[in-house]
What does this fold into?
Amino acid sequence: MTKMHLSLLAAVAATTFAHAGVGADEAAKLKTTLTPFGAEKAANKDGTIPAWEGGYTKPIPGDKPGGRRGDPFKDDKPLFSISAKNVDQYADKLSDGVKAMFKKYPDYRIDVYPTHRSAAAPQWVYDNTFKNATRAKLVGDFVEGAYGGIPFPIPKSGEEVMWNHLLRWRAPSLHFNVTHYQVTSDGRPVLTSDASADQQMPYYFLDGSPESFAKQNDYWLIRVLTTAPAIRAGEAITGRENIDGSKDQGWVYLTGQRRVRKLPNPCCDTPTPATAGVMTFDEIETWSGRLDRFDWKLSGKKEMFIPYNNNALFGVKDADVVGKFPNPDHVRWELHRVWVVDATLRAGARHQAPKGRYYVDEDTWMAALGDRWDANNQLWKTLWTYSAVVPDLPGVVSTSMGFNDLLSGTAFIGSLFGGKSAQYVVKSKIPDTTFTPDAMAGEGVR
It folds into this structure.
C-alpha cells in the first residue's frame, strides 16, 4: 500500500471517527442569544417558559448548607393538574412513559407549576463551557479536549447531548445521606438501602485543565456505605467512571467475607449493588451508561412537562412519598424545553433494553426522564430524576431518582433525603484515596 493510500485512509478515519466542536462564530452565540450552557435564552412564544435571567443564586430562606435545605418556591400553587381524565389534552408534551403511567394507574396525577429557569453555575464553569464549544471533540465514542464545563453546549448529535448529561455541572465534591426503596406490584415499599455517600467529579476541579484531566480521565467517583436494613449493614461500594467506559472500575465490600471484591462488569444492564440490584448501573440518574453500546439519534428539541425544582422533597418524610409511584402531592412538574435523544442497540452489542429515549433539559443538561423498551418492543420502564436548587453551589442538581416497571408493576424510588439531618452537602475536595478498594478494606466492619 502506498503512502498516498495510507494518507487517504487516515483522512477518512479522522472524518468518520472524530467530530470537532463548533466554529468561533457559532460559539459566540453563548454570549448573546444562548445561555452560557447553550440553552435558548429567550422565552417561548406564549411566555409559559420564561426567559433565562441568570438562574437562582440567592440564599433560600430556611436553607442550611451542610444541613437541611429549604424550598425557594414553596408558595407557588399548581397552574393545573393532568390526570387520566384530561391526559389527551396534554399528550404532545408528555413522554410515552408518563402517558403509560396514566393508563396503568388511574389515580396517577401530575401537578404543573409555574416554570422557573433556576439553572446556574459559577462564572469559571461558564468560561470553560465557552472554551469547550470550540475545543471539545468526539473521537469515536469518547470526549477529548473538554474540561470543567459542558463539553458540547451547541450539540450536533445525540451522543454529544448524552455526554453533556454525563458531564453536566454538579458539585465537584459532595456528601449525601439517602434512602432507597423497592416497591412491590401491590404498592408495598421495601427499604433496600439507607446509605451515606461521598461523590466527586475530578472533571470539575477548579485547578485542572484538559491536559491534566486526560492523564487519568476518571470523571465521576462514588463511595457508598450502607447502614440499613440490618441484612445489608456494613456493605460498601466504590466506583470510578472513566471517559473510556471500558476502563470503569468498581469494588464491593462483602460483610460476610470481610473482603473487597472487584466487580467484573460495573456497567450497562448489570444490576448495581448500590440499589441492592434493583436498578442497573446505566439507570442511575436516568442514564449513566457507556455510550458505545448504542447508536444515538438526536430527534430535536421540544417543550415538555418534566419534574423540576423539587426542593419540597427535602422536607417530606419517606412514608409520605413512597408508593406505587412518588406521591403526586409532593412532586413538582414544570414546562421546559428538552432535547430528545433516541438510543438503539448497536449491531453486535447486547442489552436487556435494546431501545431507549431520553429527555434532556436544555438548561441543566440533566436527563429528567427516560423510557426503555424490551426485546419485544414493549414499553418496559419509565425512568425519572428529580432536580433541586442548590444556590450555595450554585446549580440545579439531581436528587431523587427511580423508575416504574410498566410490565410488572414494580418500582424503585431512591435517593430520598427527607428524613436526613444532612442532605446535599457541598464539600471541599475529597482525597482521591477515599475512592479506592484499600479505603473500603481499611474501614470494613463485621
Remarks:
- The CA atoms of residues 267 and 281 lie 5 Å apart.
- The domain at 80-443 is CATH 2.50.20.10 (outer membrane lipoprotein receptor (LolB), chain A).
